[in-house]
Amino acid sequence: MKKRASTQEANTAGPDGPHVFSFAANGDGFLLDGKPFQIRSGELHPARIPVEYWRHRIQMAKAMGMNTIALYVMWNYHELTEGTFDFYTDNRDIGAFIRLCQAENMWVLFRPGPYVCAEWDLGGIPSWLLKHTDIRLRTDRATDPRYMRAVERYINELLPRVKPWMTESGGPILMIQIENEFGSFDSNSAYLEEIRQLWIRGGIHGPFYTEDGLVQLQQNHSNVAGGAIALSNGNAAQIEAVRKAFPSVPAMAGEVYPGWLTHWGERAFQGTSVDLSATLDELMRKNLSFNLYVIHGGTSFGFYAGANVDADSGEYQPDITSYDYAAPVSEQGVATERYMQYRSIIAGYLSTPLPPVPLPIETIPVTDATGTRRLMPQRYASIWDNLPAALPSAQTTHPRPFEMYGQAFGFVLYRKRLARYESGSLDIANVHDYATVFIGDQYVGGVSRTRMPEERALPLKVVHREPVALPGASSVPDDARVLEILVEGMGRVNYGHSMIDRKGIIDPVVLHHASGAREVLTGWEVVLLPMDESFVENLRPLCSKPDRAGLFFMATLSIDAIGDVYFDMSEWTKGIVWINGHNLGRYWNIGPQMRLYCPAPWLKPGDNTVLIFDLHQLDAKPVSLASTLS
Predict the structure, then answer these.
(1) Residue that finishes a domain, picked among 531, 566, 583
(2) Which domain holds residue 306?
(3) Nearest-CA neighbor of 339 among 256, 255, 258?
(4) What is the CATH number of the domain that holds 230?
(5) How far apart are CA 508 and CA 588, in angstroms?
(6) Which of 610, 541, 534 has its CA nearest to residue 576?
(7) Which one has a higher pLDDT value, 64 or 424?
(8) What is the domain-level CATH number for residue 603?
(9) Catalytic site positions
(10) Mean pLDDT of the chain
(11) What pTM, to 2 d.p., does this model score?
């Protein structure tokens, strides 16, 4: 039988009044009211969890043996437009989330960025900053005052919401993280200190901490004065190494990965083979502090999933919609086999029993007497019959990115009438990130910034950064020689040095005529299609040209009682699904994700409206109901 660590007895006590959280004088560890304290944290992201499920997910972490919740605040989820903040609606109410943590006697590690990474669009930094052609991100005021002015406004907005929740005020927040994994990006102590001083000037004097990989921390010294050190992919050996290099402050395993992220086009979900048993056992045995990133990932609903750029190939790798992450608590909040395994390990070191595991959320029955339940959508509308007016400054010399037009997400249509036309090819290779191309009403091909796995891609004439072949002049009537390029912006890069990742058409478009002439196309019309809640609500059920790709389809899900469900989109191509106006995120036939999670609170007893926008599908296909991600 494992030896139970008596010093962990106090860890079950909750944040029930003013407390003093501090560091041991010799840097050996953390103290709560002067007594040794082990942080056992599980990461949850309020932005990825419906507000109705917040308490359930916190309780799931608690029942696995955690005493703390780590949470990211995604800046761009709260300041959608410059200078306008939302910390009130739905799952944006961070104060309400922290209040629930306290109600469940859980402590909090507060991770507000301004950069968070998190496989989230632009790492949480607002895309409207990219309207400045020469913007520098994650840097000090002297290098780019525009960035730091925005950071200051954001932190000033957080300060009055955070200060009442610090332990000294009777709240559950133990520490505030300064930036995130900055050692992987740069070496700039002035920048980190500027962020720390913003909190101090606002009346919060710490405790602070930073998060980095061990090597990056050692190379770039990205810790802050007096701050604790958290280690990405940390373990007991790395904590020991950091204690030798930085003996005056405590260290913890700040991100212990129970799974991993998945990109579109990968063969399978990543991280499913990870087993943390030995790592957790050692951390518990040595009474070391840690945070599981993530204990429950949730879902990157809407357009918020981020992206990476492969360090070796330079390939763009957008993240899937699901943030299941192979975490101990699944996307839909179910305790996995690993959850029960880790719970048993942690419980073996504690002197008081853990609470029972909360029951999973009910699911909708996905089978009936005839087998798997399926929806059969009907063609509903065409994007081409629902185009807003072109921008007032309609004629522009060259196409410009979304951000220059003040649009964060969705699609933009670039339109140009061709004065001269002959067969040839169209070069829009630097498109961010997926384009469908039309001459008149005819689809002529597309371009994907993401490499498409050949064995899974349908024959849609979509190329990877190559010119699109154009049909012969005789097949395109003179009065229909209008070039239209519909561009989907996918996730902005959220890690590394490729983060200034604007969306749309980045470089001039070149038409290579069959005669050999090269023509740079100028004089474009631009139509913004953010595909936001207002656009979907006002969609007109018109479809004058059903044989032109870019169609909406609608189905009705009739249920007696609400429950979680997945929509299986494996017979569709590429697009977005809404349920009762809620954006469930993207699907794409290149996988590996084929099902989109729909939480029960977004449904109602009776009839529910399922809306699908597909970039390629001309005919409706069935949508099966499922109870799991795969």
Answers:
(1) 531
(2) 6-347
(3) 258
(4) 3.20.20.80
(5) 28
(6) 610
(7) 64
(8) 2.60.120.260
(9) 181, 255
(10) 94
(11) 0.96
